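Running co-folding for fe (ii) ion.
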Amino acid sequence: MICLGIEGTAQKLGVGIVDEDGNILANEGKIQKIVEGIHPREAAQHHAENLKPLIERAVEKAGIKLKDVDLIAFSQGPGLGPCLRVIAVAARTLSLMLKKPIIGVNHCIAHIEIGKLLTKAKDPVTLYVSGGNTQVIAYADGRYRVFGETLDIAVGNMIDQFARELKLGAPGGPIVEKLAEKGKYIPLPYSVKGMDLTFSGLLTASIKAAKNHRIEDVAFSLQETAFAMLTEVTERALAQLGKKEVLLVGGVAVNKRLQQMLRDMAKEHGAKFLVPERRDVLGDNGAMIAWLGILMFKSGYRQKIEDTLVKQKFRTDEVEVTWI
Ligand code: ATP
Ligand code: FE2
C-alpha cells in the first residue's frame, strides 16, 4: 500500500509518499518566504499555487505514477483555516479523481508517529516543539494525552519574534543557536506553571536585555532559560508516567543545545533520548502525514468525504488511537 500525504497547516507545504513498511519514497517541501509573520490568506495562496507541481515532483521522486497511490492523507488540523482548506480541497479532489480512500489526520500526532518510525521508539514521552506548537505528549489509555503545553506562544515563535525584533533575520532558531555559542549567562525570567509553560515574559525580557547586553549573551541565556523550562516539564512527565524513552520532534528539535539538555535529563532517569537524524522529518512535512494515514487505515479507520472538514483547533487527545 502506498499513501500520498499532504501537509500545509502553516507556511510550509509538503507532499510525502510512504509505503506500508514505512519506507519514505518521497518527501518534497516548499516554504512560503515570510518577512513579518504569517498571513494566513497569503500562505493559502502560496499552497494553492504550489501544490500541483509539488505533487508531480513527489510522484516523480518516488518513481511511481499517481494511479499507483492507494490512499490520500492530509493534515486536517490544527492550523490556519485558509491553509487547511486549500489542502483539504486538494486531497478530496485527488481521492474522488483516483477513486481512492481519504483520511484527514491530526498534525501533532503525525509528528510523533514519524518520530517513532525513524527512531524505533515504542512508547515515548514526546516533546513537540515548533513555530506554532509546544507540547509534551504521551500515550495513555487509548489516546495521546497532552501533559504540558505553552499557555501563550510556542517556543519557536518566541525565538523567531526575538530575532525579528532585533533584526537578526528569519527564521530566528538557527541564528540564535549560532550566536548562543559565544554567549555567557545573564538571568532571564523562568516560567513554568505546573506542567505548563509561558514564553511571552521571557521574550519581552530578552528584547529589553539586548539593549544593554551583548547579543551573544542574550541569545545564550534565552536558549538556556527556554530549554531548561522545556526539559523540566518533559522530566516531570517522564517521572510521573515511568516511561523509558524521550522523543524530540518539531522544527526546534534540530537545536543541539536542546538535544543535549534532554539527553542529560533522560540519562539521569535511565531513559533513552531519541531524535530522528533526518532533518526533513523534524519540521512540518508530507511524509509524516502519509505515514499516520497508513497507520490509521491499516487499523481499520475509514473516513467519508463528509468527515473531511478541517479542524483549526484539532486537539491531540480528540483522536481515538486504534493503531497502538
Ligand atoms: P508547526 O506547524 O508544527 O508549528 P512550523 O510551521 O513552526 O510548525 P517547523 O518547520 O516545524 O514549522 O518549525 C519551524 C521553527 O523551528 C521555527 O520557529 C524556527 O525558528 C525553528 N528552528 C529551526 N531551526 C532551529 C534551531 N537550530 N534552533 C531552534 N529553533 C529552530
Ligand atoms: Fe508541525
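Result summary
The chain has a mean pLDDT of 97.
The pocket of adenosine-5'-triphosphate (ligand 1) is lined by residues 9-12, 130-133, 156, 159-160, 171-174, 177, 250-252, 254-255, 283-284 (CB under 6 Å).
Job closed.
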